[in-house]
Amino acid sequence: MIDDAVGSDLRPLLREPSRCILRFLVLLLVLVSFSAAGAWLWAGLGEFVGTSETHQAAPIVTSSLDDRAALSEIKWAQLKASDEIAELNRRIDAAREDLKGILDQISVLTSRIESLQNSTPVASTPSVSAPPSAQAASGRAKKRRGRSTPQGPVSVGGAPVIAAPMARAP
To answer: Which pTM was predicted?
Structure first.
């Protein structure tokens, strides 16, 4: 029985160190693999950064004469367009100033018209004497008497009606 008791006590002790060693080896394997992956990424990143710098520098250095000519034409067109825009802005500003002047003139004329309209009823008091209006009435009466009255049929408006010619019988 003692042998059975001693044997049973040793088995858990023998299994424990193997689990610790196994855990240690797994942890060591994970650390080594992470280190290798980091080194690989670091080398790849350095290559990527170096490659992108050479890609940017290469087109600038190796630009052809056609590209340079095209770029100079584009710059010239941009300068021409900016000059035209500046000229248009100057013209717009001048037109705005003209419109402001016209608006000022309109407001002055409007105020003058209003002042004249307000002063007209005050100055329109009748200062004319009655005898000239009596003379005008007598002149109208003379004209009415001098008119001849039409003979024959008269239209509703007062004009003489012209009779249609009669047809002759053969």
So the answer is: 0.32
